[in-house]
Specification:
- The protein has a 6-stranded parallel β-sheet, sandwiched between helices. The protein has a 4-stranded parallel β-sheet with strand order 4-5-6-7, with helices on both faces. Strands 1-3-2 form a 3-stranded mixed β-sheet, with helices on both faces.
- It contains 14 helices and 13 strands.
- Helix 2 runs parallel beside helix 4, helix 8 runs parallel beside helix 9 and helix 13 runs parallel beside helix 14.
- It is of the alpha/beta class.
- It folds into 2 domains: 182 residues, Glycogen Phosphorylase B (Rossmann fold); 152 residues, Rossmann fold, CATH 3.40.50.
């Protein structure tokens, strides 16, 4: 369950909170099976948080053999389903995020038996990278073929799912949502010349090699425009090494590491920055790009990032992945064009595509489509392999 110290499940809970404002009888249910090194409590909970009825079970079994985990998790999920069935009134729909991680074949079969619709929303990066085990791939194929509606967060992820499953069943692409109240432009930020001001790039993410902050620092050190700064938000095992690298590159006075920040703090920094930059080519969606656009600033990202079709001359630039010179050229080009802030163009565009109300409307539409099926067994009658 997400809280101030743990963001695990935050995206899912935020969607449940918004759905509860639009639909009757919405509850948020979770099973926490993280390792005992992370989760040391065993409990069942029934409570209300931020107006949402929540049901949860915690059993730290991470680290056990996978067949054992699946068996225990199936039991917990069915028990949770019984908990939310009150006075004989069972759920009409189970809306599951990360279904390959959260569901089991036994639980899906239980939904079929009870005539409960299943709507799946897949985000998992292993699916996008097609790095699934044979059993995971088989279960994904079953879910796509037999859920009442299957969704994912990007076109790239959809393509990977189709490659794995070889299934032409409908897949709804619904992007991740970003709060337009938290991530919004500074209204006093005028679209006027800022010639003479230092240009500030900002990069976000966990400080690990996969996020390729090394590439960003190498490119930043080669910029012809030296009136530039770089703010790096995040923490992780590579933090000390990256700080040493800034000194070796001679850019330590222009690079600021601020550590981990919450969403409000990230939004505040984005609003005061000029451009978001990321060299990571391992993203399933790319939420920070949307957060930056919501705040009205352009972005620079690799040519293969999932949001590449959203880039244009107003919203930023793409560079050739893993190419330092290409990234440096893009950063130089964007910073040299810093005579205009395009807040009034970028932010409304992003809000119209990624705001909470827009995304939740699409989720509700899919849920209603699933409910309109006369018999859930028409799509959920096969055994998972």
């Amino acid at each position: 369950m997400p809280n101030k110290k743990n963001s695990y499940g935050l995206f899912e809970f935020n969607q449940a909170k918004l759905l509860s404002q639009r639909l009757d009888g919405v509850c948020y249910a979770y099973v926490d099976n993280q390792s005992i090194r992370i989760n040391r409590s065993i409990h069942s909970r029934n409570f209300v948080q931020e107006g949402v009825r929540c049901y949860g079970k915690s059993l730290p079994i991470g680290g056990l053999p996978k067949p054992s985990i699946e068996k225990i998790r199936s039991y917990e999920l069915i028990s949770l389903l019984n908990d939310v069935t009150i006075d004989g009134h069972q759920p009409d729909v189970v809306y599951a995020h990360f279904p390959l991680l959260t569901l089991t074949p036994r639980f899906v079969q239980e939904l079929t038996t009870r005539g409960i619709r299943l709507v799946c929303m897949e985000h998992w990066s292993k699916v996008r990278k097609t790095e699934l085990s044979q059993r995971e791939a088989s279960f994904l194929k079953h879910l796509v073929a037999n859920s009442n509606a299957f969704c994912c967060v990007s076109v790239d992820l959809e393509r990977s799912i189709r490659r794995i499953t070889n299934d032409n069943a409908p897949i709804y692409v619904i992007p991740n949502m970003v709060s337009s109240e938290v991530f919004c432009p500074i209204h006093s930020k005028k679209e006027i010349s800022r010639e003479g001001d230092a240009y500030t790039f900002i990069a976000l993410g966990r400080l690990v090699r996969d996020k390729k902050f090394d590439l960003v620092l190498d490119a930043f050190s080669r910029l012809s425009n030296k009136r530039t700064n770089l703010t790096i938000v995040g923490d992780g095992p590579d933090g000390k090494r990256l700080k040493r690298k800034t000194r070796a590159l001679g850019v330590d006075r222009r690079v600021t590491f601020v550590g981990w920040l919450n969403s409000d703090e990230v939004a505040s920094l984005l609003k005061m920055s000029d451009c978001y930059v990321s060299a990571s080519d391992d993203e399933t969606f790319g939420v920070p790009f949307v957060e930056a656009w919501m705040c009205g600033i352009p972005c620079i990202g690799p040519s293969n990032n999932p949001l590449r079709d959203s880039f244009d001359e107003t919203r930023g630039m793409l560079f050739e992945r893993n190419d330092i010179e290409s990234l440096a050229e893009a950063m130089d080009a964007v910073s040299s064009d810093h005579c205009v802030n395009r807040v009034s163009t970028i932010s409304p565009w992003a809000k119209s595509r990624f705001s909470e109300i827009v995304v939740i409307d699409r989720v509700i539409e899919v849920i209603k489509t699933a409910l309109q099926e006369k018999d859930s067994s028409t799509r959920m009658g096969k055994d998972a392999g």
